[in-house]
């Protein structure tokens, strides 16, 4: 658990050297049975994959860090949480399945992710890949996490393409009530709903705003939030920082 708290979403600790970015070493295990065959089969943890993914994402977005927000465990309608979300010119999400995870929740996660994300990618351990990939829509990307002698390496299997169908109503639930109401007021569409519950405000927004505009609205609202769940982190050399979100444990 200490490893997760220390490294899972702290992008400032990710090495910037490109060689190190390609292969991230995991923390040495101290247990006497670490060399057992069982351990060798399934010792890759969520935190190992997450740390490697953060390194990869920071490298991919190194030229746009000031305009990019990184979040871990972003909740969607109380149903699932996106393991790693990237918000810049699009809304991208990554679902992690390490060697010790199961695929039990993946179908539901895929269904919900596919209703709100512009781009979605499964980051999956090698032992799950053959079973997991057939569960994905064709537009989902796949990154394979391979463990060799304690090192977690991410290998691109297929690139994500844009989601062809976003659910506007579910997308609206990512907005706070005041954010959604403000969006309606800006468009002179708030009459009759100002005192209504947030569900009515979301309904009006989903019905009245074109999906492309709605995608931009939700993404920029999430990026602009202050005093929320994410804290700014300094980067080496004083570069503008992405953000940090606290992890919370979820079943897999």
List keywords for this structure.
single chain; 252 residues; alpha+beta; Trna Endonuclease, Chain: A, domain 1; 2 domains; seven-stranded mixed β-sheet; 9 strands; 22% strand
CATH topology-level name of the largest domain: Trna Endonuclease, Chain: A, domain 1
Let me know the average pLDDT. 80
Q: Please state roughly what percent of the residues sit in beta strands, choosing from under 5%, 5-15%, 15-25%, 25-35%, 35-45% or over 45%.
A: 15-25%
Spatial order of the strands forming the largest sheet: 1-7-6-5-4-3-2
Number of domains: 2
Helix content: 25-40%
Principal-axis shape: elongated
Top-tier CATH class of the largest domain: Alpha Beta
Supply Rg. 19 Å
Query: N-to-C SSE series?
Result: HHEHHEEEHEHEEHHHHEE
Helix-strand makeup class: alpha+beta
Q: Tally the beta strands.
A: 9
| CATH architecture classification of the largest domain | 3-Layer(aba) Sandwich
State the major sheet: 7 strands, mixed
Q: Show unreliable segments.
A: 1-41, 231-252
Individual helix count: 10
**Termini Cα gap:** 16 Å
């Amino acid at each position: 658990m200490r490893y997760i708290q220390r490294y899972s979403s702290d992008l400032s600790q990710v090495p910037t050297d490109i060689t190190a970015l390609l292969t991230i070493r995991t923390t040495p295990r101290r247990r006497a049975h670490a060399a057992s065959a069982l351990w060798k089969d399934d010792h890759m943890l969520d935190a190992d994959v997450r740390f490697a993914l953060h390194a990869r994402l920071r490298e991919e977005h190194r030229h746009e860090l000031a305009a990019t927000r990184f979040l871990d465990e972003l909740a969607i309608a109380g149903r699932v949480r996106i393991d790693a979300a990237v918000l810049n010119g699009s809304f991208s999400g990554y679902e992690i399945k390490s060697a010790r995870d199961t695929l039990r929740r993946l179908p539901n996660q895929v269904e919900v992710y596919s209703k709100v994300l512009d781009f979605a990618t499964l980051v999956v351990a090698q032992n799950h890949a053959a079973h997991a990939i057939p569960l994905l829509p064709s537009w989902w990307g796949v990154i394979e996490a391979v463990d060799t002698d304690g090192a977690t390496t991410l290998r691109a299997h297929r690139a994500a393409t844009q989601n062809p169908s976003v659910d506007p109503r579910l997308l609206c639930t990512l907005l706070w009530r005041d954010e959604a109401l403000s969006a309606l007021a800006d468009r002179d569409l708030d009459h009759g709903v100002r005192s209504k519950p947030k569900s009515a405000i979301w309904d009006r927004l989903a019905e009245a705003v074109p999906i492309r505009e709605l995608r931009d609205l939700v993404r920029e609202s999430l990026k602009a939030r202050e005093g929320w769940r994410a804290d700014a982190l300094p980067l080496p050399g004083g570069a503008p920082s992405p953000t940090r979100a606290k992890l919370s444990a979820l079943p897999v």
